[in-house]
Design a protein that fits this description.
By secondary structure, the protein is mainly alpha-helical. The protein contains 11 helices and 2 strands. It is found in: Cell membrane.
């Protein structure tokens, strides 16, 4: 048992990566390349939206939060993971582990709230086009973005704060990432309270996002069916299709880790693979989906690269 006063000096140990010596450098290079590619893709989307005034619209301002969040999400894992691969040192201080877990859950919750806000924006734009300018004003947009980040920060802070009063009985972690479920397994007691609060937050995030997305898409579908303008239908479906692909990817990518941690029958190897999937696939796929499927962003990116290529000659 470790007293709470010693948490700042407490050192935890992750599960071994089980890499043979000949695979250390290839694994490090692969991980570094993946991380740099994730940063490149997300920073490209951020730069494209910020530097083009034509994209300074509510839809793209809300979208801007997604690559920022994805870049932060990848950064909360990859530097520590790359260091572990290079040095084969699987230890991490409790404060660093706590911070990694806090950021992982903060980014995960933010993804749901951002996509929920984007679904609401598309609902107003397609179902209430004449009122869109009056509803999605700059002032209201700032309120939506500020409100979702503050709500997310408050909820995740509560979820992690209730870990602190309970004593820790072990320092070996069975996972590769400091999720809250992994931190809970280190506690001597208090797991019931933490489980209730954690499940309540999961229900809130999933329930809110699923209900809003279902409501908005049902009304958007009805509007598209009753709208006789084929061009409007196609544009609406293209815009919403990109959002729906990203949302479903997030749902599937979140569902597997939740199941693997809650049910003991899932093999330990799969549990560890699922535990890092949220740090890789959404940050990697989201900018590619929005970059290639959103016409305005795709055109701006291609124009930017074309101008740079011409100026280099």
């Amino acid at each position: 048992m470790y007293p709470n006063e010693s948490l700042f000096s407490l050192v935890l140990t992750f599960h071994s990566l089980e890499l043979p010596e000949t695979s250390i450098y290839p694994a490090f290079i692969f991980g570094l390349t993946t991380y740099l590619f994730i940063l490149l893709c997300n920073l490209t989307i951020i730069n494209t939206i910020c530097m083009n005034r034509n994209l300074h619209k509510p839809m793209y301002i809300l979208l801007l939060n997604l690559p920022i969040n994805d870049a932060m999400n990848a950064t909360s894992l990859f530097p520590q993971l790359l260091y572990s691969i290079w040095s084969q040192d699987r230890s991490i201080s409790y404060p660093a582990c706590f911070l990694q877990g806090f950021l992982a859950h903060l980014n995960g919750g933010a993804s749901y709230l951002i996509l929920t806000a984007m679904a609401y924006d598309r609902y107003i734009a397609i179902c209430c086009p004449l009122r869109y300018g009056a509803i999605m004003t700059t002032n209201n947009l700032v309120k939506i973005i500020t409100g979702m980040w503050l709500l997310n920060f408050f909820l995740i802070t509560v979820v992690f704060t209730i870990l602190l009063p309970y004593r820790i009985c072990q320092t070996h972690m069975t996972d590769l990432v400091c999720y809250k479920t992994a931190l809970m397994k280190l506690l001597c007691d208090g797991t019931e309270v933490n489980n209730i609060v954690g499940l309540s937050c999961i229900i809130f995030y999933h329930g809110l996002s699923l209900s809003v997305v279902a409501f908005t898409y049902i009304h958007i579908l009805i509007t598209c069916v009753t709208n006789k303008q084929s061009d409007a239908k196609i544009k609406a479906l293209q815009t919403c299709g990109t959002h729906l692909v990203v949302f479903l990817l997030l749902e599937l990518n979140t569902l597997f880790p939740l199941i693997s941690h809650r049910f003991e029958f899932v093999p330990a190897f799969l549990r560890r693979v699922f535990s890092i999937s949220n740090f890789i696939f959404p940050p990697l796929v989201n900018p590619l989906v929005y970059g290639f499927k959103t016409k305005e962003i795709r055109q701006k990116i291609f124009t930017c690269f074309k101008n740079k290529k011409i100026s280099s000659f």
